[in-house]
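User: I'm curious what two different proteins look like when written out as structure tokens. Can you demonstrate?

Assistant: Sure. I'll show them one after the other, since each token string lines up with its own sequence. Here's the first protein:
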Amino acid sequence: MGTHGPGPGLQLQSGLQPELRALPGLLKTLGMLAMTHAEVVTATERALASNPVLERAEGHPCPGCGRHVASGTCFRCRGGQGVSRFQDGPEPAVNPFASLDEDARVEVRPDSRHALDLVLAHLTSRGLLDCEPEQIAQLHGLQPGQVHEALRALRAVGPPEIAATSVVELLALQAEALAAAGEVPEWLPHLVRGHLADLAAGSTDGAARALGLSGAEVLAGLAVVRERLRPFVAMDTSAGAAAIQTADVFLYRRTDGSLEVEVPASAWFGLQVVDLSAGLTDASGAKQWLTEHELAARRLQYQIDRRAGALLRITECAVTHQKDFLDHGDAGHHRPLTRTAVAQETGLHPSTVSRAVSGKRLRLPSGTVTDLACLFGKGQAARAALQEYMTTAAGGAASDEQLRGALARSGFAIARRTVNKYRRSLQQDA
């Protein structure tokens, strides 16, 4: 946010503002405002698995923030403010095989070290081989065994899917790693290897018959493919590595030093409604089935966007008040701010603001994730000044009245009882 208002990335949500005064009853009914980002993700995945007209656009979550992108990392995580183009594959800064050379040299047999350099030269930006191992051997006059030994060394020190020969094989190897860890069903790698094209075309019957699965199991497997597998080499396929430390609200610093707030809306998750009307029979039951699913899909998008619009408005207001605190990063610059005051400024009900702030996480421009509630509260600057004064020789032995006078001279007019409360709280924290 800041003095210049929302940036272009927030235009999606600009049409959501006029009805925000009605949010208390509406969002309580929808149940979205109180949800954390993780809960919204869970609700989204369930909808994707159960609703045939709701799908995620081609791409994957950005490794840095979780925003859905066509490829690589998003423009913000690349540091390209305002740039909307995406590079093909992961950025060099997060390239998972950039440092494999040295480790693989220790692992590979001496007679195949020269083959290692040649194999590395055939890796694409996604970590795939640009041709088959036998072709590499033929091109460079190597023995096939030397190429396979170089590949073995790479996979021993790097991700298991490194140097796959196709995207399907890369995804299948990731699925095998997850299955070996017991995190996904054992049939998932077979689903990926043999039926990914059918699933991409929207057909689940063939995979279900071939693998002896129900349609629901196939859809659940497809949801795992969308959420956990990446079309480029991942550094780690464990659950901990797959989980992106994301937040409900993101705060970015523009080149002019002002602050911009962004809240994930439906576009952040890559959600889109597909048209399945082509070839649909005129039977009333089929039309009703399609209409009901379309309404459910658009309702989910609407709910996510309304949640985003409310959080955006509240956070922008709070950031305006706490600009000095966010610029300097210390409690001494924190201004007293209550949820009721923000409700009055934004025209929202106080309960709406409380529901929106509760449990939500804020990602600062530095990348640190903290509670959104850090923007609210009273007395933080006075507490910081009191703590600083108490560390001095005079302050450590001072009475509550003396401390009150010292704070008053610094511009903090608080009662002696409040000084005593802050003092005891600081002593307990220490």
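Here's a second, unrelated protein for contrast:
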Amino acid sequence: MAAGALVPLLAVGGCTGGGGASAPAAVSGSGAQEAGTATASPQESAASAGSQAESLEDSYQRVIRQVLPSVVEIRTGGGLGSGVVLDDAGNIVTNAHVVGTATSFQVQFANSPTSYPATLVGTYPANDLAVVRVQGAPDLQPATFGDSDEVEVGSLVLAMGNPLGLSSSVTNGIVSATGRTVSEPASEAAPGGATLPGTIQTSASINPGNSGGALVDLDGEVIGIPTLAAISPEQGGAAPGIGFAIPSNTAEDIAGQLIRDGRVTDSNRAALGVSVTTVADRSGQPAGVGVVSVEAGGAAEAAGMRAGDVVTAVGDQPVRSAAELSAVLAGLSVGEAVQVTATRDGDEQVFEVVLGELAVG
């Protein structure tokens, strides 16, 4: 099971994790001292380093006090995950793989023994997002969402959630990269898996149960929804320090549509307008993407593609599997013109395709 995914309930006592880190002490360069300049004594240097450490620690504690009441634990009949309070109406954004196929839940707030019932508002597995609505909970504290387009690599962040059933836990790290396209394994919500564009990579620990929680900057703003951790092919387990979060702008957009319409009406995701399957070569290795059917009036049909074509490249990017095709399309835009290379009856052809929008339910 991928780290960050829905996990079975664990019989573990509640624990609130706090974060703290020491800033490195400033070190003066060696060499002769110039006349008229002063050199800090060891005691002064130590005091300065201690002051810096306290400042960062204070920032962490302030953000935790501010945001943790907005991060909840969501329990289904067979597992748990996390969520973030969106508004005073009790709407909570989480991951689609946290809710799975369930329609009713129990929601527990930070440092509270009381659980409250919640129901499903809507789910959109293509972006691994869902909204549930809690009922009867007093004193809701909606989180403040930041602009994920402004997130910079190297920014300090905190990940808040309920990893391994340890409620209200906090880990710290940095933003390691932005704009990552990652693929999730199959889940109840998305049997074929999901491809997530534009994710935020972070070194803050993302463990099973963190899914749907909050990735927060030091301004106390949610910049992402932690979703999964990378898997090391060599070790067969989670790769330490490599986790991914859905950008806050995407989460707010999709959640807003689910709340307003009960479904997503505008995916903002490019599509060919085909249903596909991975085609293997004689050795059993993925060798292309077979077109099973073509959507009437869709982008592929307009370009002259048809069932039976085998897509091998989009633009200059080769595609050997349905997952690779999804990943390439996730990095493109609705209305963008691309060249799609495919074989038909053994002959290679190039189609000029103006990408459509991923169909929504």
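A detail about the second structure: Helices lie at 42-67, 96-99, 248-261, 299-303, 322-330.
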